[in-house]
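During the second year of the project, the team shifted from modelling isolated chains to modelling whole assemblies. The rationale, set out in the original proposal, was that interfaces cannot be judged from single-chain predictions alone. As a representative example for this report, we include one of the complexes processed in the last quarter. Its constituent sequences, exactly as entered into the pipeline, are reproduced here:
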Amino acid sequence: MSELLRVEDLSIAFGNNQVLKGLSFEVNENEVLGIIGPNGAGKTVLLNILTGILKPDSGRIIYQGEDIAKTKIVERTYMGIGRTFQVPRSFEGMSVYENVMIGGVCGRQMTEKEAGAGADKILAQINMADKRDLLAGTLGLLDRKRLEIGVALASKPRLLLIDEAAGGLTESEVVSIIDIVRGAKEQGVTIIWIEHVLQTMIEGTDRTLCVAEGRNVICGNPRDVMDSPEVHAVYLGTEEDYADEGAGADNDIAKTGTAQALPPQDKTLLEISGLNVLHGDLQAIHDVSMRIERGHIVSIIGANGAGKSTLLNTVMGIHNPAGGTIVFEGDDITGKRTSAIAEKGLAMTPEGSRVFADMTVTENLLMGAYLPAAKKAKTEQLEKVFEMFPVLKEKSEQLASFLSGGQRQMLSIARAIMMNPKVVICDEISLGLAPVVIQDIYAKLKELNEQGLTFILVEQEIKRSLRHSDYSYVMVKGRIVLEGKSSELSRSDVSDAYFGINRFA
Amino acid sequence: MLETLPQALVTGVLLGGLYAIIGIGMSLIFGIMKLTNIAHGDIMILSTFLTMFITQNLTGNPIIGLLLTIVIMMFFAVGIQKFLINKVITKGAEPALLVTFGLSIIISNALFLAFGANTQTIQSPLVSMNLIRTENVSVSMMYMVSFLVAVAVIVVLTLVMNKTSFGRAIRAASSDTVMSELLGVNTKRMYVFAMMLTVVTASIAGMLVGMTFPFYPTTGTQYLIIAFGVVVIGGMGSLPGTLVGGIILGLAQLVGANFIGPTYQQLIGFIVLLVILAIRPQGLLSKAVRK
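Output from the structure prediction step:
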């Protein structure tokens, strides 16, 4: 096998953000190379560099023996590099057939006749011959993804770059995408397939490369890569990462608070039954049911794109569910206005803290005490949160835009506490924070929980979630695949569910 | 020309006050809903007609006329916000823009139907009074009152926005709708309140305009352009910015007219507007450019 593409020591920075840090790999002729990596690993940036949309700061891209780092987008297309996009970009007002024709005519400067003959072959290859004359805009997600690959194939690429073809599809639909990719390989196309849905890699690729923080982590046989401790560490964190987070405080669920003494029906604070949520034609949440008990810390664990945020946003009325019910303290709150749900005693610290940057710290906190019930107690509450977060008192008259990431997160939590809520939903509060800050924030949560406040935590880090919660749910692709008392779930149970290797193969 | 310059400067600044109060409502709506309200001028002229009608037929006192107008206009604000703009505001900027465009046409034609095409005025003793009169400069009482009212309205609104829970909630809703909802702020209701505030300032502006200049059903568009200029110069959504914007526009018009000729008054105003747009597109007092 000869080498088709070699990437050497590729680096690119956006301002202070070094996205790629010396990434190197090679692809052999007629090989399918899978590239996986958590969000922010630099996967899409890499594709944009390979297609010429971005110019790397340093490094070489050797394609068929030539350095193409300086060539333009269109030249690379003529050299036979084709790509698909994460979000399908087919021309909605044209038919499926016309879309494929465009790929041939524009991508490879074929005549209409040549392209037309090729187009029918490609439609058969992507199993869309019966949809030849439908408008692309009327297609469902699977068909749009297939068409996207078809359009790229029509330009007869030597090297096809696929950006997330399986996202949002069901398992059987994913299988049909894998078939199309394997089919293209049989015709001699070399493929680089970037994917979030890890399960596709085992069936669909010859070799898998894992990228994290702009560097290669490991490359090799897909199954070995999936099972490797390096990849697990990238997605789930390592044991050492948590060594400093209060080892003695593990899972002391044997709480003696009042919550445990209540009859079972009163113990339930929030109950979600059979919830389904759609984003356009993409089903983000499939039949999710959960019961949150009063006084508990419940964690929801899942990879990026598993639907955790969507689930929480639906509870808070930011998204409307397509089916199912959400009951809070016996009241059906399904599909209610967000402000009305907040009034019932549900507070949320959304991902990225979302403090009001042009207001002072105090003003932000007072926004938490906006509702009449909270407004009455605002002076005492303000004292309470200042006592709990002394740094906020220090900076009380500063604009929130001057706070550090950790301080913003604290402000976001404090603002939620100002609402005097019954439950606080925290979406990724540890994202991007230093371990010592995370430790501090979790200690505060624990303190508040001991005072009787219920928490729902969303985390990507399994170990941290299990350590700090009473009960855990694991989500994969919009479904709950595992649940149980956090003390009884092991990290390997969760990581099996998370990587879903046994479920898929 | 130089001997008439002091008069141009004084009138320019004072006229700027009137321009500012015309622009405040537009600035509020833009700041809070990110909506360019094409009907702003027509809403103001509608209130001018109402004040005139009530004063002439019911009270005889324009201040009582204004108060009654404000009450009626508040109901009008609730109506258009709740049943028209709120229905489309979540679907992006364009549908709401079109709604206000339609509203503009409906209002000016309804006024045409009700009052005819005649030029109208609101009688006021202030118009013929002068506060100061020297050889070179005279200060019209009407202009001075307009200016002071504008400053007062801006000060009161700034205090409301910065010091009250209601003002904070409006600011919160304008900076992050979803987060505000999560804290219990019903943002659509905030939009209704914002529209009510807007028609209050528009009614005050409308009365002052009606006393200072003649008006007719289609004058609204003319004042929309002034409001637009004020808000763009000062910075969309900035209250002190409207005063600065108004004064710059007023000065540009009158000082320009003083040197080049009154025919070019409007043109010079808009040349200044274009220059400022080119140098500082977010407006003079607006917060940093959006990311």
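The longest strand of chain B covers residues 130-133. Chain B is about 75% helix and 0% strand.
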